[in-house]
Write a structure and sequence with these properties.
heteropentamer, A mainly alpha (235), B alpha+beta (353), C alpha/beta (232), A: 235 residues, MetI-like fold, C: 232 residues, alpha/beta, five-stranded mixed β-sheet, elongated, binds adenosine-5'-triphosphate, binds magnesium ion
């Protein structure tokens, strides 16, 4: 109970904390930004496609949801680490190292939020009336065209939901990030990692509470923006 | 020439239809609700894949092309405007994809009377407004064949009367063949060159409009609004009497004065129930047209109270419906010469092109 | 009700499980464990977790509970000790000199990182920081760390080649065949590594006290030794 | 009595409408596309909340009730069947919620010809089938007022002819007042007791059908399909001539033999363009009805080529459209006695109840 | 790389592992079962309602998504622990203890998956054509009736997605569960926690891999079932 009294107003933030905030925002932006186009394609394939391996793709997309995040992070290390097949190739070919870098944190977040984004978009794509797509066909729109001009805009709520969920979930992503990218202040120490550190430190509850509050503010800011942009208002 | 044949089964309903019709021209699919008009059109647009299907337009087989490359414009029975686009963007959708065509954006907008709606979203339109936009959208996609599924049934008479001539003009000026589904005989006779009668998934009869409408052996003749169609040419105007003379073969038919200049081809529709038959020439009567004809065939309707009389005139064939009583009084029988009395007001005329 | 619930620091997992097997083989009540970081466990105990026994990886969290009067004071004792080592892949293992003039950073190469438990809260990380400070390397090394959320995670970073070296407990290296010890920190470079154990006041049962006593017996201590722990 | 008044503004369009009409009875809202028919109905159902709105049915104000408690059945212009339910469940939806009413499930199904569709989902129906189900669903909800927004525009003539009398029967047997939006004058004259003419968001005129249709000063009279309506009673049948005599006030009107027994009230519709005027009685002619009348008013159409003549007969008022030429030849002017020649076939008759 | 060779076919499972599997399934079932009705109500409120506090509710629902799971678990301890306001009341009133019990694990899972379920249902509810609800109104259906007979069935895909996501995410839930319910075999040690324990054990990677595989099998089983039940097939 005493705890409630110990949480103080989070401002001003310390330098490290500020850095964690900026880093979190950058990481979330990259995770959502790179994840979204891919999520759209996968969602479309799952919603409309009928191809062998469709079910496998579906299961694969859900993988990060069904495994403990720590395992996801560990699998990422196995695949994208310097000795992993993709990681070795990236390092040899482009000199890119993902582990311990901001990009790695973004990758981990991106993988974790991917199933959420795909589901949201897929739901909305499935709700689009296929008769409208038929109408577009008779007007000469081939499938990419149709997707971009009809399906996607009509699935707008799903895309928005994907962005909102991806962004908020990114701000809370912990296990996969710390396992894959470690907890390096200024490079991979996002807010959740800072909160976790504080929580595990003796007497750190107050700091953790402060930082959690910052995290909530950031996420709520995103929600406000989303609510403001929601298609219902635009209509 | 447009040749189409189709076989398909839905759960419980089977469709077997085939027809061919000259192009360009308007081919009307005429039949009751559930006859199979929409299914046939869906197949022609490539949206339905029937068990068997052939479609050939001017020698080009189209049945294998995907809908987006088939060049078939479609005005859907259920509108299907894009809800997330303004009216303007809906109209432009096909315009940008179909390539520049003979139909101009501004012309189509003006004709359909949708200039004031361009900025609106479809859900802010009334039912009729929506349908007009759908017609515009299909027209502007510059199709090689236009399918129209009951495009006017949501429109009021005035708007219909405005749009119908434009559709007729499309046929002749742009030579886009049009397949037109309808259950309004009026629309069909005003517009069609070829009439395809469909019932319960079968083609009952198909042929040129003027022939089909004068036959007493088709279910068409039994309808309240049955009527014959004559083709003619504007001969001269009589402004002082407010009349125009149309020459149909050997006959003159008078109609209330029209604007088309002499020499214009017109289509005259005379409802069967408005044709009066006489054996003596009446006097002091408001009827303007008194045409010599002879009876080709007489048939009775199902109830046996009306007689359907197929007439041969100098310039075509007409249908008259009189009471059985009158048919007996006048002793109508094949070969009998009669006078066909037709009010000038009874003649609907439509410019051919 | 006879079951003994033991909250133990994650690094004790193998040893404690072996000892429990031994204990239960003697016809004693069942033991169940919850392995987590000491901090999490201590907080859970503070919030009323139904633990009979707590084994912490460092003194501080035990002190914390003592301050909250959660411990059966008399039952607190030091169970085992551990050593702090530098771990490297066995292949191409470069021994490290630990103490003044250490070549620890040279081992990392130009851009390699040193995997450690998070010095902010993971006990192994805290010991590592002390040692590095003592050796005067902290200033430089702190920018070259890869802090992980547990000592096992740090070990895994070395195992997977992400980090060329790491600081972990001696016990961790023992069973990882691909890794070897490149150097052992002299005991004077960090606080003594001790695992204190105590019975919790709220769930103080005879069985729990017996179990703690058993932990101090020779068979149990042998198991600890087998897993690389040292005497306290 | 149904009293409705409404004021509302959409972006760019403003609606101000009020009317009152006796109940039970069919109140037709007649007007072109975009006039405001659907908006008015939405307000009456409680789905649109206009800036100002009053609605009183038989003394009960309804405007404050929520749609689900207003007891207003609605056949929507756009169908709105529940896509996840079978036709049967769609029909039952209102049945279960509206309480048992005079309309029986099996009767409605039989009448609308949807017995074979009961197990299907709406998307497997044709356009017309869908609309019939929507009508059935609204009927079965046992409403105190039924709104029908162009319910028949997707139906073919045969189906329309089948359903219209049933709607008429609803009015008289169940005494459910019906508000009926349409732009088909034919439907309206067959069904309506009260006609409310709407144009561009305003009520142009409202009143009893028979009065409204005979007025030459309303835009109605200018339509191709303008016509007068007479009310009469079946007098006697002449089976040997296949005719039935209807007495309309002092006059007899002959129509092809009908099935209704003597004494039945009927409504006769005579299209203006099919009425022939004569000053001398013709002979040897197929026309069966030659009625004495006198001219009430004469007006010209916009182009000045047709004359609209309002006639007073012994049993009602009719409208005739003749060429201006004929009007001059016959010297038609108010007060002049004339003969109205009407083919028996020209008279559409409908049973009143 | 060597890791791949060490993962073995997971069957037969040891007794503890079996217990973890059953426990995970029970916990997931309870989390989804109790969470779903509530998620439906909240989704409906968010999709269709216009009330003060709507935004707050939205933010609250998203909270578990935006905070690191450990913090969520810790907040749960603060609220539902024996000393927390709700926990104390529950204990005093009903003798119910949530923290460190199976019910507590289910609660933690339920809270974590709640935002996912709400989002999925909300998206589908928003895609339901309001004109159909209007039609139901004119047929006399009041709002509960309308919701149950029109909105909900038409939002079927969303409800199914909610169940799928909730179930798979429950099978992967880690941070909140371990913090709130601890990691006690047979009582609160769900599969992810068992996997974590294995990872913490020296040389436990192979066991962790095995268990992760079990987790994937369970989740994929759920996906298969969902695909099979999907409304598209029923139509
Ligand atoms: N997907 C389907 N499944 C089962 N039956 C169908 C399906 N689509 C159409 N039908 C049936 O096929 C027949 C023809 O339908 P179609 O829509 O082609 O009729 P239509 O002539 O366009 O009728 P309308 O004038 O009412 O629009 C109807 O009996 C209809 O019920
Ligand atoms: N939500 C809206 N926003 C803006 N304008 C609207 C809206 N709804 C209707 N209108 C306009 O109000 C007018 C009346 O529309 P309404 O749908 O009532 O016409 P209607 O008489 O039913 O036409 P139709 O016969 O074509 O169905 C139209 O001009 C329409 O564009
Ligand atoms: Mg159709
Ligand atoms: Mg309307």
């Amino acid at each position: 109970m005493g705890f409630y009294r110990t949480v103080t107003w989070p401002w001003p933030l310390s330098g490290d904390e500020q850095e964690a905030v900026y880093l979190s925002l950058r990481v979330a932006a990259r995770a959502v930004g790179f994840g979204l186009p891919l999520a759209m394609i996968v969602a479309l394939l799952l919603a409309r496609g009928r191809f062998p391996g469709r079910f496998l793709l579906n299961a694969l997309v859900h993988l990060p949801l069904m495994l403990p995040p720590v395992v996801t992070g560990w699998l990422l290390l196995l695949v994208f680490g310097v000795e992993g097949p993709v990681g070795a190739w990236l390092a040899a070919r482009f000199g890119v190292h993902l582990a311990f870098t901001e990009s790695g944190a973004a990758l981990a977040c991106g993988v974790m939020i991917f199933p959420l984004m795909v589901r949201a978009i897929r739901l909305s794509v499935e709700a689009v009336d296929p008769r409208l797509e038929q109408a577009a066909r008779t007007l000469g729109a081939h499938w990419v065209d149709r997707f971009l001009t009809i399906t996607l805009p009509l699935a707008g709520p799903g895309v928005l939901a994907a962005v909102v969920m991806g962004y908020t979930a990114s701000l809370g992503e912990f296990g996969a990030v710390i396992t894959f990218a470690a907890n390096i202040p200024g490079q991979t120490q996002t807010l959740p990692l800072a909160i976790f550190s504080a929580l595990e430190t003796q007497g750190g509850e107050a700091v953790a509470g402060r930082l959690a509050l910052v995290s909530v503010f950031l996420a709520v800011g995103g929600l406000v923006l989303a609510e403001f942009l929601s298609p219902r208002r635009l209509k | 020439m447009l040749r189409v044949s189709l076989e398909h089964r839905f759960a419980g309903v089977s469709l077997t239809m085939a027809f061919e019709a000259p192009t360009p021209g308007v081919i009307a699919l005429f039949g009751p609700s559930g006859a199979g008009k929409t299914s046939l059109m869906n197949a022609m647009a490539g949206l339905l894949r029937p068990h068997r299907f052939r479609m050939e337009l001017d020698g080009v087989p189209l049945e294998r092309r995907r809908p987006e490359y088939r060049g078939v414009g479609y005005v859907f029975q259920d509108g299907r405007l894009f809800p997330h686009m303004s009216v303007r963007d809906n109209l432009r959708y096909g315009l940008r994809r179909g390539g520049a065509g003979p139909v101009k954006f501004d012309d189509a907008v003006a004709l359909l009377g949708i200039g004031a709606l361009l900025g609106r979203r479809p859900r802010h339109l009334s039912g009729g407004e929506r349908q007009r936009v759908a017609i515009g959208r299909a027209l502007l996609s510059n199709p090689r064949l236009l399918l129209m599924d009951e495009p006017l049934s949501a429109l009021d008479q005035a708007r219909r009367d405005e749009i119908l001539p434009y559709l007729a003009r499309l046929r002749s000026v742009l030579s886009i063949p049009i397949v037109y589904a309808s259950h309004s005989l009026d629309e069909v006779t005003r517009l069609a060159d070829t009439l395809v009668l469909i019932e319960a998934g079968r083609v009952v009869a198909a042929g040129p409009l003027t022939e089909m409408t004068a036959r007493v052996d088709l279910p068409l003749a039994l309808r309240e609004d049955a009527g014959g169609v004559l083709r003619g040419v504007v001969n001269s105007h009589l402004p002082e009497r407010g009349l125009t003379a149309i020459s149909c073969g050997a006959d003159f038919v008078w109609v209330p004065q029209i604007t088309a200049p002499p020499g214009t081809g017109v289509r005259l529709r005379v409802p069967a129930r408005e044709v009066i038959l006489a054996v003596e020439s009446p006097r002091g009567i408001s009827v303007t047209n008194i045409l010599q004809a002879h009876v080709v065939a007489v048939a009775e309707d199902a109830a046996g109270h009306a007689a359907l009389v197929s007439l041969e005139l100098g310039g075509g064939a007409l249908l008259a419906r009189v009471t059985r009583d009158a048919a007996e009084r006048l002793r109508l029988a094949p070969g009998r010469p009669v006078l066909a009395l037709i009010k000038a007001m009874s003649v609907d005329w439509h410019q051919e092109d | 009700a006879d079951t003994i619930t033991v909250f133990a620091a994650a690094s004790l997992t193998n040893a404690m499980q072996d000892i429990a097997t031994l204990w239960m083989a003697g016809g004693h009540p069942k033991v169940v464990f919850s392995f987590e970081s000491s901090g999490t466990l201590a907080q859970q105990i503070a919030h009323g977790a139904p633990a009979n026994v707590f084994v912490s990886a460092d003194e501080k969290w035990m002190d914390d509970l003592a301050k909250r009067h959660a411990l059966l004071a008399a039952s607190r004792s030091d169970l085992v000790g551990n050593s702090l080592v530098v771990v490297e892949p066995k292949q191409g293992l470069k021994p490290v000199k630990l103490g003044a003039g250490s070549n620890l950073l040279a081992v990392l190469g130009p851009d390699g990182r040193l995997a450690v438990g998070d010095p902010a809260h993971v006990p192994a990380g805290i010991y590592a920081r002390q040692a590095l400070q003592k050796m005067g390397l902290w200033e430089v090394a702190s920018a070259r760390l890869a802090p992980a959320d547990s000592v096992r995670a740090a070990l895994r970073l070395v195992e997977l080649g992400e980090a060329p070296a790491g600081i972990v407990y001696g016990t961790d290296v023992k069973v990882t065949p691909s890794l070897g010890i490149a150097g052992i920190f002299p005991p004077d470079t960090h606080d003594p590594i001790r695992y204190p154990v105590a019975v919790l006041k709220a769930h103080n049962t005879a069985a729990a006290r017996d179990f703690v006593a058993f932990l101090h017996t020779q068979p149990a201590q042998d198991v600890f030794l087998h897993w690389g722990f040292t005497a306290p």
